[in-house]
Amino acid sequence: MESQTIRAKFPNNSHTQQSLVRPIINVPLNPNKSLFPLFPSSSSIMPLLTSSSRQPLESIRHRRNTTTSLFSRDSSSKFRARALGSDSSGRRSDVSVNRELIVLNSALTLVLAVANRVLYKLALVPMKEYPFFLALLTTFGYLAIYLSILYARYHAGIVTNEMVAYPKSRFLLIGFLEALGVICGMYAGAMLPGPAIPIISQTFLVWQLTLSVFILGRTYSLNQIAGCLLVAAGVVLAVTSGSDSNQMLAGIAFVWPVLMVASSAFQAAASVIKEFVFIDAASRLKGKALDIFVVNSFGSGFQALFVLLFLPFLSNLKGIPFSELPSFLKSGAGCFFNIGNNISGCEGAPLLPLLYIFTNIAFNISILNLMKISTAVVSSLVVISSVPLSMYLLSMPLPYLPEGSSLSPFFLLGSAVLLIGLILYNIPRTQKRDTEL
User: Is this model's pTM higher than 0.70 or not?
Assistant: First the structure.
């Protein structure tokens, strides 16, 4: 029996969901659209895709030799759909297998998301006096990974000369903003109590919405605006309410939460510029999507450059003369590798920093794989769920953090308001994207 190709657009109604042949839609997303503003730093996000985020449509053969290809009217919204049915031989259906796969990947992603947040704080414990060295190490580490992948994709023909020739001024601005974001985040994270970090970092969403309105001319629904305001209110309520002794930031200098908010602002600005780059590149490349590793590689390259250029300024802030900077970096390397007779206060290195780096890479691979096999709604809810779990774990006594932190009723109330805001902001948008395709 010959396969039959059908070009159609499924209507969004209940009849489609109740049919015996059920479409399972896998929507490739652009990670640089920043669907999940929930991570502690821009270096924590490493999108790993096997090809450009908008790919040519390819048909997938159904077990009954029925191939269905779907196209939306907008060429930028191409996606793949696979018709799945039950097996008359009694074997498990593809629907059941796909559901179990989503559940397993969701559980794995949730574990990695929580571990990523907890290890971010733990990695800064032994490097408390040398957060700049850790920022320098992670920046150059991710740059090496990005360049290696870009090199392989270029020789495979996925990345073209036109993509590599894209104007570098935008990447320079992205690198500058991300360098500021990473450095501010590392310095603030080393001084803030653990549960406060995932709370304050959610201001990323507020900055992103505001900046995208002015830079991209984007408009948002009332639900999204309300969600953003709830996030801001939740952050303020969580970290400032209560008596002086019960406040989460009691005894913490005002400069450190301000630096964490600034870090989120710089990261949000970089993400909006990245989105502008993808939009602009689509017209320059005549409809082709700019490969994400071109953006990540050149952006990380300029980020590494600016991190080096900030060395004299940062050394002066710590009261270290520029002439003594090489000795300071040598001490940072000694603390990271935990070697030398005069090393103290670096217990846990290099295990904790390396665990954070490897867990961060695994988390980013896992979250993108979950987005491929499920929907944006599922991925969004999984990442949102990691916020209260990581806050709870960071409040408990942990290795190298034996004192723990007490969570006041106001902190818990603010956290609940923040989570409601995140859900309100994300779900309407992701559902609309899924149903419009």
Answer: no
